[in-house]
């Protein structure tokens, strides 16, 4: 499992009771009574209570296998990027003997990026020296750095200790968070709205931090499917809730401006972890809240 702030995620196991939080004590008593009436009191049977008592390990990780627990999934460089980061082994600013060496600031890359844009303009048949294009390469380079600023942001610095102890286990939902990102296939924008819900287990996250988590991962070259998963895993690593749900509705300019040119098409992706995956009623409650006006 991945670690956050130097701590192993397994240090704070999720108690099985938290994953059946929506089952009232009366329902549990009724279930036990029914088991007794039917002679089904053996833990090996399939009663509701015994099922959750005999499988705590499965509930601890609520379907998060090793791959899902990795915040930095393939295709997204780790931060800060080093010579050990896949794809950066041969970078000119890395040295094999300096594994903790960081790349230069992003602003230091502006001259080279501007020259690349100047070459691109020339390839398009334009004259980079004409008045309207004189400063375009530098502007475009600065814009691209801003569009992808998430590469140099980490979850820890963005959260800034805005995690609070609170005795609550009711659903928290922040919906319609505006999102702008760049399609990694065509380097054109896609944009939309993100809705996030989670069930706390004694810890809550500052509400603005949910929007900042969206910013970290959307401000990178992305695909919507990966972006959805990264946001859900980041919230999970931040406060270890009983479950996390993320829904993104996006419009992709690579479908609008080129290719099939379907201007009204939208792409909806979702990631459900924990209770939101296991409990249909909890998932339905979240989706109803997200889609309500």
Automatic annotation (TrEMBL):
Sequence ranges of Low complexity compositional bias: 17-31
Chain positions covered by the region annotation Disordered: 1-41
Domain GTP cyclohydrolase I: 115-290
Gene Ontology BP term (one): tetrahydrobiopterin biosynthetic process
Pathway: Cofactor biosynthesis; 7,8-dihydroneopterin triphosphate biosynthesis; 7,8-dihydroneopterin triphosphate from GTP: step 1/1
The reaction(s) this protein catalyses: GTP + H2O = 7,8-dihydroneopterin 3'-triphosphate + formate + H(+)
EC numbers on record: 3.5.4.16
GO cellular-component term (any): cytoplasm
UniProt keyword list: GTP-binding, Hydrolase, Nucleotide-binding, Tetrahydrobiopterin biosynthesis
PANTHER family listed in its UniProt record: GTP CYCLOHYDROLASE 1, GTP CYCLOHYDROLASE I
This protein's name: GTP cyclohydrolase 1
Organism: Euphydryas editha (Edith's checkerspot)
Organism lineage: Eukaryota, Metazoa, Ecdysozoa, Arthropoda, Hexapoda
């Amino acid at each position: 499992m991945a670690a956050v702030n130097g701590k192993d995620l397994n240090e704070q196991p999720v108690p099985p009771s938290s994953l059946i939080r929506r089952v009232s004590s009366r329902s549990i008593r009724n279930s036990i009574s029914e088991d007794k009436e039917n002679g089904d009191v053996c833990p090996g049977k399939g009663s509701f209570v015994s099922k959750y008592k005999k499988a705590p390990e499965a509930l601890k990780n609520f379907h998060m296998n090793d791959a899902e627990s990795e915040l930095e999934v393939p295709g997204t460089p780790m931060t800060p990027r080093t010579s050990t980061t896949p794809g950066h082994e041969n970078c000119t600013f890395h040295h094999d003997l300096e594994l903790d060496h960081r790349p230069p600031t992003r602003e230091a890359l502006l001259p080279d990026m501007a020259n690349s844009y100047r070459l691109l303009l020339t390839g398009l048949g334009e004259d980079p020296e004409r008045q309207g294009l004189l400063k375009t390469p530098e502007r475009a380079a600065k814009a691209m750095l801003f569009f992808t600023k998430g590469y140099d942001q980490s979850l820890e610095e963005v959260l800034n200790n805005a995690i609070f102890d609170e005795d609550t286990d009711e659903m928290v939902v922040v919906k319609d968070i505006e999102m702008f990102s760049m399609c990694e296939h065509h380097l054109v924008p896609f944009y939309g709205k993100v809705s996030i819900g989670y069930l706390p287990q004694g810890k809550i996250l500052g509400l603005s931090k949910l929007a900042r988590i969206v910013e970290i991962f959307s401000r990178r070259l992305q695909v919507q499917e990966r972006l959805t998963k990264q946001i859900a895993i980041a919230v999970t690593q931040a406060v270890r809730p009983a479950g996390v749900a993320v829904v993104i509705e996006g419009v992709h300019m690579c479908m609008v401006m080129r290719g099939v040119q379907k201007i009204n098409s939208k792409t909806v992706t979702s990631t459900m972890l924990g209770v939101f995956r296991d409990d249909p009623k909890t998932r339905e409650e979240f989706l109803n809240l997200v889609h309500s006006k």
